Amino acid sequence: xxxxxxxxxxxxxxxxxxxxxxxxxxxxxxxxxxxxxxxxxxxxxxxxxxxxxxxxxxxxxxxxxxxxxxxxxxxxxxxxxxxxxxxxxxxxxxxxxxxxxxxxxxxxxxxxxxxxxxxxxxxxxxxxxxxxxxxxxxxxxxxxxxxxxxxxxxxxxxxxxxxxxxxxxxxxxxxxxxxxxxxxxxxxxxxxxxxxxxxxxxxxxxxxxxxxxxxxxxxxxxxxxxxxxxxxxxxxxxxxxxxxxxxxxxxxxxxxxxxxxxxxxxxxxxxxxxxxxxxxxxxxxxxxxxxxxxxxxxxxxxxxxxxxxxxxxxxxxxxxxxxxxxxxxxxxxxxxxxxxxxxxxxxxxxxxxxxxxxxxxxxxxxxxxxxxxxxxxxxxxxxxxxxxxxxxxxxxxxxxxxxxxxxxxxxxxxxxxxxxxxxxxxxxxxxxxxxxxxxxxxxxxxxxxxxxxxxxxxxxxxxxxxxxx
Length: 469
Fold this sequence. Notes:
Blueprint: H1 11-22, H2 41-48, H3 54-65, H4 69-72, H5 76-81, H6 90-103, H7 106-114, E1 118-121, E2 129-133, E3 137-139, E4 148-151, E5 158-160, E6 168-171, E7 176-180, E8 189-192, E9 197-201, E10 217-220, E11 238-241, E12 249-253, E13 258-260, E14 269-274, E15 279-281, E16 292-294, E17 299-301, E18 313-315, E19 319-322, E20 338-342, E21 354-356, E22 362-366, E23 374-376, E24 382-386, E25 395-398, H8 401-404, E26 416-419, H9 421-424, E27 430-431, H10 456-464
């Protein structure tokens, strides 16, 4: 049963209450103590109604332990009450388990210790109340009366429109936490699982010194990081996410190691500024009006984007670029800097004259439309070409015959395949209409055929997911 604190006493007052049972009453000579008295369930109840301070609770349990084993059982209910909806330190739990073993009620105690939902008393010399739950959604909740709130679940919790936080929040088991439109004024401590991702949208009153340094990523949607100056975090883990298009003019994203603008309308943005080496996700974004200069960015995801309105598109040397299903790319788009490029089901510019790639590039063309008249694959280290529209392609340059065999060309294609100059003397010119017996059938050891784990369609589906969020 739960015994609430009804009349708080100081630790010293409870110590005096337990003194006859802990060390005996003071004798008449004022120098010694009379024999210790036997504690009773009534005295235990009085202690529990007065405090949940660890030292007092431990002294009470030790007084019960001093009773003969046959008499300890009378205090069973009070021993269980010391742990029912009450937080206790580990050493006190040990003392409780010792009494339960002697009294034969281990299962009952374990059941009490296993109940971790609802209100509870925090171990403290004051009346500090906590709240524990497995529910993962909090909307406009009043946490004012709680010192601590604990979420035990593993699903991603969402805390939304909370005007007054508790002093402490704990998320020991989940890897993703979302705050939306919350005030952080009263929150003094947040405890999260190591390497969890925390998303903070529209924070208010960020004056508290909160520690997010253990986060795998701290996602915010404020560009002025001075608002977060009292928060402790790893600058290399600070990331930006935007779910609305309220921002106007230049969007300075240089403070952020990763940027997520997926599914966002960007029609009010006049320019972007990125940190060197950042990763940018604009999956399914729209409303492009400004030049898209990704030259500082290490990774760019433009999957599903309609790039109509963007006057230019630039990528960094060695960038990883994903353009699955992208369309209406600027006329001057080129991919000569991209170390990795995925154009699965992308629609290239109609007037593109040629397609060339960076040295040692990893390129995927799967269901790609509007391939230009001239394509040079000779510099690619890895290449996947299948299900593409080659109706406008007149010439393809390959490194060698082994690379040519990786191309999935239509049987009725009438273009020509040539080989890069260093291999031109050794390799014959190939046309799709040539007879099979005229082809050189050689596959060097460096060519690795794709198994299920490297199947291009499997890779494409995986990459379509974009960045993990």
